[in-house]
Amino acid sequence: MSQGKTNRNKGHNAERYYVKEFKEMGFDKCLTARYGSRVHDDAGIDLINLPLNVQIKAGKQRGMNPSAVLNEIIERIPTFFLDNDPVHDNINIVIHKKEVGAGRKRNQFDELVFMSFEDFKRLMKMINWNH
Length: 131
Fold this sequence. Notes:
The protein has 131 residues and is α+β, with helices and mostly antiparallel strands. The chain is 43% helix and 17% strand.
């Protein structure tokens, strides 16, 4: 299999993996954008029916700049969605499922989530804290 097909399969597998994870968290309508919405996919959003705009990255991703990926989502959304669409209000995140080398066991730092600090603050306000 060519490297391009291998990378494409890694990405698709990671998307399906995170759909399953979000469903287990209670988001039972979560789908890949490839399956559910070409418009979301074109806007750089990989998972739909969530209160988040999620972009999935899988593998080594040499030179990936999470800030640039997040910015790309923000720039693409107005091109594909009406001004009053709720997608504009969603928190934008990038999930990177890193490649683990042969003989190395996956650990908690092999799956990372990136977001802006502004979105992080919005998320923190949504959490019902019991101090």
